[in-house]
Amino acid sequence: MIVAATSKTPRPAAREDKTDRLDSKKLACYLAKGLLKPVTIPSVQQEGDRQLCRMRHRQRRNGAGVKRQIKSFLLQHGLPEPEGLKHWSAKSIHALRIMRLPKLLRLSLDALLSDLDYHINQLVILEKVLDETLASTSTGQRITLLQTHPGVGPVTARQFVTELYHYDRFETSCQVVKYIGLAPTIRQSGSKSTSGPINRDGKPSLRCTLIQAAWQWVAVDVRAKQYFWRICHSNGGIKQKAITAAARKLTVHLWTMLINNKPYLPEKS
Predict the structure, then answer these.
(1) Is 146's pLDDT higher than 80?
(2) What are phi and psi of 120, to 5 degrees?
(3) Of residues 186 and 206, more confidently modeled
(4) How large is the average pLDDT for residues 130-135?
(5) Which SS3 state, helix, strand or coil, does residue 16 take?
(6) What are phi and psi of 19, to 5 degrees?
(7) Of 67, 84, 171, 210, which residue is least crowded by CB atoms under 10 Å?
(8) What's the confidence (pLDDT) of residue 235?
(9) Are 167 and 258 in contact (CB under 8 A)?
(10) Is the pLDDT of residue 69 over 70?
(11) In the predicted model, what is the mean pLDDT of the chain?
(12) Rounded to whole angstroms, how far apart are CA atoms 96 and 88?
């Protein structure tokens, strides 16, 4: 049995009759001609690891949403932000808990703080479970390997390894970049060829994490910084395009490290 990618399945140009029997015949014909692209099915362990990482990302995203709601609440009612709230320090959160407010406003702010506590606690629990689950496995070894790359921490490494559990099925780095959604779209007709925006396939959260990691890489690695500014200057100073190119380069580095099972080695001059 195979699972086919629906987005890659051929579609008729005109509307046709549709029944289960006709669909089955059509799919069987496509399969016989090699027109169906199979999807890799993760094992139970791989899917569990991936879902844990996705849940961690979801809790962090939801927690950030609650923080925005708290700041909006303070702004709406003309309340000053406690010192340190920019970085959400423990002291600033405590100041929110003891802030003198009318009864109904106090209840509303306490409800938001309770939501924030929930997401923070869930993050702590998920981090602990992830560390304990992945520490002694081959997945954990790959995560440790990827962290030898500048700018790549445990969150980026975990997400990259769990989302690309089938990394060894890709034949080229171009396939990996396209799978993640960082490949530029190509528009070519005759002698004219242009590169458009990225294709945005794959998991948006992984793409976002890689772009954030690219910013960290550019900040700590001299060669990465030079590459970033070279791309930036050649694109009219648009930093978004330059950091996307850096994220694309970072993706190739990480995939190559997994394929070769070797830590990061800086590029030679």
Answers:
(1) yes
(2) -65, -45
(3) 206
(4) 86
(5) coil
(6) -140, 165
(7) 171
(8) 83
(9) yes
(10) yes
(11) 90
(12) 11
Contact 71, 85 (CB under 8 A): yes
User: What is d(CA 25, CA 28) in angstroms, rounded to the nearest whole number?
Assistant: 5
Widest distance between CA atoms in the chain = 72
pLDDT at 197 over 90: no
Compute the average pLDDT of residues 49-60: 93
Token pair in block for residue 204: 């948006």
Task: Pull the structure tokens for residue 41.
Answer: 């099915």
At residue 1 the predicted structure's pLDDT band, cuts being 50, 70 and 90, is: low
| Two structure tokens written together for 29 | 């014909």
What ranges in the chain are assigned the alpha helix state H?
A: 20-32, 44-76, 90-97, 103-134, 138-146, 154-163, 173-180, 204-220, 222-234, 239-260
CB 266 within 8 A of CB 161: no
On the CB side of 98, how many CA atoms lie within 13 Å of its CA?
Answer: 6
Cα–Cα distance between 199 and 118 in angstroms, integer?
36
Please choose, from the candidates 160, 170, 152, the residue with its C-alpha nearest in 3D space to the C-alpha of residue 134: 160
Residue 1 in tokens: 């049995």
Residues linked to residue 189 through DSSP beta bridges, in sequence order: 192
Please state, in angstroms and as integers, the Cα–Cα distance from residue 258 to each residue in 169, 249, 267, following that order.
12, 15, 17
Look up the pTM and report it. Answer: 0.84
With b meaning 16 or more CB within 10 Å and e meaning fewer, what string describes 63-89?
beebbeebeeebeeeeeeebeebeebe
The backbone torsions φ and ψ at residue 78, rounded to the nearest 5 degrees and listed phi first, read 60, 35
Domain boundaries, the chain: 1-39, 44-135, 143-188+199-260
State how far the Cα of 253 lies from the Cα of 215, in Å rounded to an integer: 15
In the structure encoding, which two tokens stand for residue 22, read together?
A: 């006709």
